[in-house]
Amino acid sequence: MRTGKFVLSVVLILTVLILLEGCASVQKSGGFVGKEKGKYYHIHSGVEFPNKLDGWHRRDIMTLDSFGYEIVVTYDKYNPFRAVMTIYVYQAIYSDKSSSLDEEFISTKEAIFQSHSDAKLITEKKSEGIWLASFGYVDNFMNVEQFVSSMLILNMDMGWYIKNRVTYSLMEAGEKGIYAIEDFLGNIPILWASIEAPIK
């Protein structure tokens, strides 16, 4: 009889752990992330964050302010090489003053240079109202001190900025990996073009 109770207890514990694991990606979202038809979305902007996105797997969703207007979502990619994509969604208006996309791009570059003193700007361009840039610097990536490439794409739509940062090891990714990342980032405006009126 004790064996049966022990087995039942183990099953219950495992069930709770599985449920907690399923909630881990949104437990820090502060209630500002909704779920509809199996997809999570930012309640204020309406931007969706699927569990999987073209080979990327969502790791977590976090809010950066008490009102949930600034949100950051992390995706991981393991094959054919490891990469991390961080997506920031935040308002384009501060203190009743509009912040232009160009100003935000300059501010983002400055933040990268401040965080990584050896960072070098490799490329930058503005295409159809979207800023794209790539940086190179040494970083502790995947617990290894190595030279990495960090690519940036910055867009603004319906009063919201959507900033994507993709970081990966140049040595591990190789030339084919670089092209794959560039192609993926090139499709980001299409993938995230689902912003409509903010969900109330």
Task: Write a brief caption for the model.
By secondary structure, the chain is of the alpha+beta class. The chain has helices spanning 2-23, 101-115, 170-186, 188-191; strands at residues 33-36, 39-42, 48-49, 52-53, 56-63, 71-77, 83-91, 93-94, 97-98, 120-127, 130-141, 144-157, 160-169. The model is unreliable at 1-27 and 192-200 (pLDDT under 50).
Q: Helices and strands, in N-to-C order?
A: HEEEEEEEEEHEEEEHH
Order of strands across the biggest sheet? 4-5-6-7-13-12-11-10
Report on the biggest sheet: 8 strands, antiparallel
Helix content: 25-40%
Measured on Cα atoms, how large is the radius of gyration? 19 Å
> Beta-strand percentage?
35-45%
Structural class: alpha+beta
Give the CATH level 1 class.
Alpha Beta
- Give me the number of helical elements: 4
- Tally of structural domains: 1
Question: Which consecutive residue ranges, at least 5 long each, have pLDDT under 50?
Answer: 1-27, 192-200
State the shape.
globular
**What is the fold-level CATH name, i.e. the topology?**
Protein Transport Mog1p, Chain A
The assigned CATH architecture is: 3-Layer(aba) Sandwich
Q: By CATH's scheme, which homologous superfamily applies?
A: Mog1/PsbP, alpha/beta/alpha sandwich
Mean pLDDT, to the nearest integer, reads 74
Terminal CA distance reads 53 Å
